[in-house]
Specification:
The complex is a heterodimer of chains A (134) and B (339). Chain A has helices at 2-23, 27-34; strands at residues 42-45, 48-55, 59-60, 63-66, 72-78, 87-90, 95-98, 103-108, 118-122, 128-133. Chain A is of the alpha+beta class and 134 residues long. In chain A, the strands form two sheets. In chain A, strands 1, 2, 3, 5 and 8 form a five-stranded mixed sheet that branches. The relative contact order of chain A is 0.17. Classes of the chains: A alpha+beta (134), B alpha+beta (339). At the A-B interface, helix 1 and strand 9 of A face helix 3, helix 4, helix 7, helix 10 and helix 12 of B.
Chain lengths: 134, 339
Amino acid sequence: MKNKTALIIIGLGLFVGLAIILFSIPKSNIVNNTKLEQIPNSEIKDGIQYITIDAKGGYSPRVSTAKGGIPTKLIVKTNSTYDCSAALSVKSVGFQKILQKTGEEVIDLGTPVSGTPVRGVCGMGMYNFLVNFE
Amino acid sequence: MENKKYTFYINGVHCASCKISIEDILSEQDFITKSNINLKKEIIEIETDGNKNTQEIIDIINNKIKNNGYTISEEKISKDLSTSDNNIWKALLIGISFLLLFFILQKSGILNLGIGGETTPTTSFLIGIIASLSSCLAIVGGLVLSLSAKVAQDNNKSTGKPLILFHIGRLFGFAFLGGVLGLIGQALGVNFLLSAILGLVASLVMMILGLNLLGIFKKNKITLPSNIFSFFRKVEHATFAPILIGIGTFFLPCGFTQSMQISALSSGSFFSGLLIMFSFSLGTLPVLALLSFGSVSFANSKYAQLFFKSAGVVVIGLGLFSFIAGLAGIGIINPLFNI
């Protein structure tokens, strides 16, 4: 009986660990959310806003913020990217493509509306990124 | 002498095909005129020619079937409930530890090695090795593990033949389809929706097989619809099905596979496409072979029951993960995980 209780307790502990790993948000994004040290990943050139996201073993930054109401293009940079993040789908603009292993993919987001975030997901769904427009 | 009827308790029978194989063995015995196994009640009814006494019959039958892990007895062996209960907890522990290690490995970023430059057979091979440890293992490895464990569990004389066929199908299927990609230079099997749906189907199969391995459905073991069930029967026994499933893994969602397909696509010739995909699948072979043949050797050891249950936990976990992630991948739900 003692044995069993011990097993159950260890099992629960491991389960909690698993949940933490699956659902926790990477550190870099907490920094982003609290805006302590936002990594600038968007710039406006000739009236067009460019947002840059790196794709390799996930997307970074995973959450970023840009301005709404201006024509916007998303640049997804790959660098020897073979994993799932190369199989990118941005549903709101109907983009689905397996990216070149090294290069830049420019995705036209049109003119995003403030308050409507754009989400990108990799083919198998375990990596994603979010761009908020304000 | 008159025919006599006996009813014994039978232990260790967990599937319909076990029932058939025991009945086959018993029908080879001259003194047995009739035998019938009731899976639900775990009893076996035997009709004999009446020349043997009860103990003799039990000894003879046990001799024949004990190698396959079955025993019969006059008394119901009260299965030591506490041990089998402990087994479940142990299995949960082992299974969850495995899942934990797997996801830590994914999150650690170790697998984000930079392999740059041209895609050569050597780099394809290396990428294959990485892929076989990556999150692709959740779906391809999970499927391999669940099928292997299921085959081993249902087929007590586990020769591993279906598994060898699976790997052959996978290797040569990848090579051939890679060649075709290189030849036609057009998208094939890189259709997002198709591979996502296949992935969802695969994760469902994993979850069902996982529950089966766990023995959740103790009393009515086979809950798969009969046509799916007969398909798995074929997986176990036929030659064609394992090869076909091996080839089918080409289309399962895995970023690495899809990237390599693009490389094969742009390689420009049948031969170079073939070489890229063949090297890639060769790179994935060690881990997948370990999973499948490891299952067979565990299934033949005394830890068989614990192994099946642990494998069940792992497979259900991976199936659930791939299913939820797959739904997010096609945009039905918002992504839940941040691997």
